[in-house]
Amino acid sequence: MESIVRKYAGTTARPGPALAALAAAQFTVMLATSIVNVALPQIRAGVGLSDSGTTWVVNAYGLAFGALLLAGGRAADLLGPRRVLLAGLGLFGVASLAAGLSTTPEALIAARAVQGLGAAAIAPSALALVMLLFPPGPARGRALGVWGAVSGAGGAAGVLLGGVLTQAWGWPWIFHAVAIGAFLVLVLTAIRVPRAASATERGRFDLPGTATVSLALTALVWGLTTARSSGWADPQVTGSFVLAAALLAAFVLVERRHPHPLLPPRLFTTGRVAAGNLLMALLGSVWIALFFFLPLYQQHVLGSSPLVTGLGQLPLAGANMLGSALAPRISRRIGAPATVTAALLTEAAGMLWLSRISADGSYLAGVLGPSVLIGLGLSIAFVQLTSLSLDAVRREDAGLAGGLVNTTRQVGGAIGLAVLATLAGSVTARAATHQPHLDALTAGYRLAFALSAAVLTATALLALLLARRGRTVDRAAANRAAALTRTP
């Protein structure tokens, strides 16, 4: 792998254009995650979707994306991240075009699932290329700052662009625009990212491990998304959870016996990868829910149009970009643990502020200020936790590490959204018996934001605990190394 890195580094004296291509790939993936949210009513009417079918326009993408990220990351390590990235972009673009041309619910949902498959190849391979292009140090910190900016901005821009395109040209153009973007990024990647990055690593693909963990994640995410509409006690929901647990147990057994496991133990030797992924899962549990509940409040309660709702995301996107740019500098000044903790608490403060929204409120009074706080905190925390999740990872595991951190964020988001949507729906249903409809809706949204603030506060405390434990482990390792050097 070292020869690959030397060859790769030697092909370009200006890594900026390559980083721009890779960041654009990540932006496209995040854009497709949120761009459909404000257009769902129009999509439902245009294709003839049922209530459950409308939900699966969102779920099909997230399900395929979350379940196949580890497989995409490992494929990037074995086949070369550049090759996998180009293939993923091509598949993603074709699926996006097919989604925009769909005339039946089945075709649209299938196209969204294939979109998720392409995204599962794009996200880990692009992040792996960033790691290859930028060695550990300030340069990588700045590159991850850019990565964080486009990740958060992609989610916010999806809401904005979805509103603009839906109102101007109709819902098919949200998918046509994503397809055009994917093909442009494919060309940019082919030109700017050197071919040296397509070299192949040694090892065999862990097919049994990939199959069991992908099916386990599929069952888990399917159960969580179904629970939002059917309830936690539904036999299909509980059955999917049981199946997920059984498949995860089978995955552990397969990994112990496979000579080239999908998740090699060396990935977790320092403890930082495990800690980073745990914290990222908790951050993801409120991240995806934010972009679900906030547009609903703006449209259903405040009465904003899709276009105005999208424009309302601009302050959040701007704060996100600012926070991502500042994250490396803040970390160098006060240290990574303090930066993560402060960022999580800042985001928690924004969520707590949002929990005070009212049915007769306004965007300026109830949404603008919290959006800025949330954007700053979310972006800084994301950059730092991504860096932690990739810390001390071997270059031959770069794709897998990128797939893992994306998986934990995606699965954490699915769990968080399912739980928060269920609880918010229960509160709304109870409130609707004695309150006006808009007040009942707002009560559910307030609960979701308040619980998100609680989760972020707990995550900040956990980050402090893990940082203290990590320093203790590092000191113990240093003492053992010193003792060995003194041994005659």
From TrEMBL:
It is a multi-pass membrane protein. Keywords: Antibiotic resistance, Cell membrane, Membrane, Transmembrane, Transmembrane helix, Transport. GO terms for cellular component: plasma membrane. InterPro entries: MFS (IPR011701), MFS_dom (IPR020846), MFS_trans_sf (IPR036259). It holds the Pfam family MFS_1. PROSITE patterns: MFS. The chain crosses the membrane at residues 20-41, 53-72, 84-101, 113-134, 146-165, 171-193, 205-225, 237-254, 275-297, 303-322, 334-355, 367-390, 411-432, 444-467. This is EmrB/QacA family drug resistance transporter. It comes from Streptomyces subrutilus. The lineage of its organism: Bacteria, Bacillati, Actinomycetota, Actinomycetes, Kitasatosporales.
